[in-house]
């Protein structure tokens, strides 16, 4: 029989399972972000795997490895001075005539719906190091974003 018609098994045709992707760059965290990461690791470590299927247990282990890696590589950043836009600040900015406020946080802590964006997001990178009243370029448009206010955030 030709090798082309021989079936070794279903497993050889399944897509490989890869680790969860780690965001590129440093793993900066706020005090709140570090606490949330520790809580996530503790919650995942407390899960009883004995009642799970083998596939579900493997998925759980992948997620746990991701969060353990994030905890091990976390870099707690000092509180910003508040004179310019920096990691950990809450920034009010004007874009297209509308004022919005966001906090600049770590990748894993980011939640745009809750007003938290990653420091590595394009908008955050555009605003970084700008002072109140300064206009910054964004999305290919010069002077698209005006920095309205900067506040220090202490979320424990």
From TrEMBL:
A matching Pfam family: GreA_GreB
Endpoints of the signal sequence: none
GO molecular function, one term: DNA binding
Domain Transcription elongation factor GreA/GreB C-terminal: 82-150
Domain of life: Bacteria
Gene Ontology process terms (BP): DNA-templated transcription elongation; regulation of DNA-templated transcription elongation
Alphabetical keyword list: Kinase, Transferase
Entries under InterPro entries matching the protein: GreA/GreB_C_sf, Tscrpt_elong_fac_GreA/B_C, Tscrpt_elong_fac_GreA/B_fam
PANTHER family with a match to the protein in the record: TRANSCRIPTION ELONGATION FACTOR GREA, TRANSCRIPTION ELONGATION FACTOR GREB
Name of this protein: Nucleoside-diphosphate kinase
Organism (species): Sphingobium terrigena
């Amino acid at each position: 029989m030709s090798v082309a018609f021989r079936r070794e098994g279903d497993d050889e045709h399944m897509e490989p399972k890869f680790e969860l992707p780690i965001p590129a760059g440093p793993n900066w965290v706020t005090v709140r972000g570090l606490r949330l990461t520790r809580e996530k690791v503790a919650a995942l470590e407390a899960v009883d795997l004995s009642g799970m299927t083998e596939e579900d247990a493997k998925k759980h282990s992948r997620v746990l490895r991701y969060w353990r890696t994030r905890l091990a590589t976390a870099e707690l950043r000092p509180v910003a001075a508040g004179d310019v836009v920096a990691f950990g600040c809450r920034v009010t900015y004007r874009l297209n005539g509308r004022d919005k406020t966001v906090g600049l946080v770590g990748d894993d802590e980011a939640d745009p719906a809750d007003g938290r964006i990653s420091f590595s997001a394009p908008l955050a990178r555009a605003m970084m190091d700008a002072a109140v009243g300064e206009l910054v370029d964004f999305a290919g448009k010069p002077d698209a974003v005006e920095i309205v206010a900067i506040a220090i955030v202490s979320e424990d």
